[in-house]
């Protein structure tokens, strides 16, 4: 299956005369008077939903960033900087127009058509995580992909926002024809009797939910799962890059399309400002904070040095760009959209 970029139909342009005549008629037909001044009647504007998909190339590979929606985190501080000084965080937030009371974390799923495999990275969440989540199946179909078309799924790690939608409400696999790939360390951790989540700074109820989510969804793929050991090739052109700390067996991915390479960092970084300006800050999401910091610094340094295209799961859609060095830390330079 080939993923074709979307096209935008072009509407014929109205003539200047007909446009002005129509506009004048609209104002005269529906005008409001306030203090003797006439105003055109306001129209009802549509409420935007989540983004859908964005097509791009990785060398010779066709690729898509597909949105599953977003997760609302309240408050943003100290959620993305448990060890940050509030004054320093507030200064950074003011500089970058951040709302310290809330943060929106996008869910950007990578789809790669290598010509041999149609690969999806992670299966996404559901509305159980919030009303802004669970749009991956709809947006796949909008991109012309039936879930049954996916033959390869890489599970980067087993947090609920990455695997909760592996099965549907009927308990059946949402991607019925896929083979699944996950780090052997990640599988071993989440399938043990009682995974130790003491490193996560979440309420106990969420930890219980995360364990149940892993038990159900990983259990559903046990007959078709493949263990990824180290930095092995998953399918031709896509390699695993072990990046532990966020979880014990967390994976990033290297996608080599020949003339271009993309590194999908998944959850090594979470926030497009705080995680780059201060990679030493501890977000509540990392299980082993110290190891996660070391991994984050190493990966960001490599991306900035090599100037490699990156995709980040939780950055603003479509999550594509480059990492640049900036004032003792790093900065995110999003790609300009093309179509």
UniProtKB/TrEMBL annotation:
The keyword Zinc applies. Pfam families: Lactamase_B (PF00753). GO terms for molecular function: hydrolase activity; metal ion binding. It comes from the Bacteria. Residues 1-40 form the signal peptide. InterPro entries: MBL_superfamily_lactonases, Metallo-B-lactamas, RibonucZ/Hydroxyglut_hydro, TAT_signal. Residues 106-314 form the Metallo-beta-lactamase domain. Keywords: Hydrolase, Metal-binding, Signal, Zinc. Belongs to the metallo-beta-lactamase superfamily. This is MBL fold metallo-hydrolase. It comes from Mesorhizobium neociceri.
């Amino acid at each position: 299956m080939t993923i074709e970029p979307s096209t935008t139909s072009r509407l014929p342009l109205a003539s200047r005369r007909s446009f002005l005549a129509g506009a004048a008629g609209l104002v005269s037909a529906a005008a409001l008077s306030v203090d003797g001044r006439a105003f055109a009647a306001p129209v009802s504007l549509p409420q935007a939903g989540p983004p859908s998909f964005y097509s791009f190339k990785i060398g010779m590979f066709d690729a898509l960033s597909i949105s599953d929606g977003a997760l609302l985190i309240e408050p943003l501080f100290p959620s993305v900087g448990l060890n940050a000084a509030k004054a320093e965080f507030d200064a950074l937030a003011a500089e970058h127009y951040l709302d310290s009371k809330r943060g929106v974390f996008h869910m950007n799923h990578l789809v790669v058509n290598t010509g041999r495999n149609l690969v999806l990275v992670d299966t996404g969440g559901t509305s159980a995580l919030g009303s802004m989540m669970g749009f991956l199946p709809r947006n796949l179909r909008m991109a012309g992909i039936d879930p049954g078309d996916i033959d390869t799924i890489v599970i980067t790690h087993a947090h609920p926002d990455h695997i909760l939608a592996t099965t549907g409400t009927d308990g059946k696999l949402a991607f019925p024809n896929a083979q699944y790939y996950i780090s052997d360390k990640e599988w071993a951790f989440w399938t043990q009797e009682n995974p130790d989540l003491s490193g996560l700074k979440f309420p106990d109820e969420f930890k219980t939910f995360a364990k149940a989510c892993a038990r159900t969804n990983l259990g559903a793929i046990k007959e078709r799962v493949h263990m990824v050991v180290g930095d092995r090739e998953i399918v031709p052109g896509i390699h695993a890059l072990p990046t532990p700390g966020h979880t014990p067996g967390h994976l990033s991915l290297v996608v080599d399309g020949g003339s271009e390479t993309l590194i999908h960092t998944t959850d090594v970084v979470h926030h497009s400002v705080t995680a780059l300006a201060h990679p030493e800050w501890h977000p509540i999401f990392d299980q082993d904070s110290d190891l996660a910091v070391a991994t984050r610094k190493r990966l960001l340094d490599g991306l900035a040095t090599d100037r490699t295209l990156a995709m980040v799961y939780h950055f603003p859609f479509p999550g594509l760009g480059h990492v640049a060095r900036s004032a003792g830390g790093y900065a995110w330079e999003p790609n300009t959209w093309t179509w």
